[in-house]
Amino acid sequence: MQQLPPSQYIFPNPIEADPEGHGFICIGADLSPSTLFEAYTHGLFPWFNEDEPICWWSPEPRCIIEPQAYKPSKSLIRNMKKHDYQITVNHAFENVIRSCSLPRNYANETWISEDIIQGYCALFEAGYAYSVEVWEQEKLVGGLYGVTIGTGCFGESMFSIKTDVSKMAFYTLMLIGQENKLPWIDCQLVNEHLSSLGASTLSRQIYLKSLQDVIITPSINWKSYQERVFSSKTIAVFAKLDG
């Protein structure tokens, strides 16, 4: 993990900047690793269209999922046993984020611009981002990526080109969260898909208070996961990363 230089930008307190809880906090800055680090440690994340200036958000309430409470569906377990995909961590971050940036069948546009890709890839190189990949032999068929600071784990986006494979990556992330006793994984904004996976919400005030605790704790040892290849079948049978 690299020691980042101090950010040249100071972000406002979300509660003071947005007392009515609309979620929009400020505009401007850049997407350098130092700026992204500063934003996430203050409860903000970037969200904007490619032709817009950089917008920073801190929603009220905050969507989170508690790894200890996560329960995979029976259909997911059946698919994990049936296909036996290989699952890795931090093996193909740029491929994952670029796959997440592609248009979906339900939307022609994506918020993951080339600037976002470059910014988060640089953050990954500095040691403050992660990815989970799902492979069918040599082909990347699904995955997710996010930001990691201390034991703060922030989910960003996921993709799949096979049934349930993004959920397999998500299950793997939940098991990493369980092993490291993470109080929550940040999912940012509530939506139907996240709710179906067991997500809940915290008030912004409670989230920001908890955030200050997790970002100063020792970091997750991502290298220990990066050095292994996991089997979806093994995970499904034993409900843990190693059988």
TrEMBL record:
<dbReference type="InterPro" id="IPR042203">
    <property type="entry name" value="Leu/Phe-tRNA_Trfase_C"/>
</dbReference>
<dbReference type="Pfam" id="PF03588">
    <property type="entry name" value="Leu_Phe_trans"/>
</dbReference>
<dbReference type="InterPro" id="IPR004616">
    <property type="entry name" value="Leu/Phe-tRNA_Trfase"/>
</dbReference>
<dbReference type="GO" id="GO:0008914">
    <property type="term" value="F:leucyl-tRNA--protein transferase activity"/>
</dbReference>
<dbReference type="GO" id="GO:0030163">
    <property type="term" value="P:protein catabolic process"/>
</dbReference>
<dbReference type="InterPro" id="IPR016181">
    <property type="entry name" value="Acyl_CoA_acyltransferase"/>
</dbReference>
<comment type="similarity">
    <text>Belongs to the L/F-transferase family.</text>
</comment>
<keyword id="KW-0808">Transferase</keyword>
<comment type="function">
    <text>Functions in the N-end rule pathway of protein degradation where it conjugates Leu, Phe and, less efficiently, Met from aminoacyl-tRNAs to the N-termini of proteins containing an N-terminal arginine or lysine.</text>
</comment>
<keyword id="KW-0012">Acyltransferase</keyword>
<protein>
    <recommendedName>
        <fullName>Leucyl/phenylalanyl-tRNA--protein transferase</fullName>
        <ecNumber>2.3.2.6</ecNumber>
    </recommendedName>
</protein>
<dbReference type="InterPro" id="IPR042221">
    <property type="entry name" value="Leu/Phe-tRNA_Trfase_N"/>
</dbReference>
<keyword id="KW-0963">Cytoplasm</keyword>
<dbReference type="GO" id="GO:0005737">
    <property type="term" value="C:cytoplasm"/>
</dbReference>
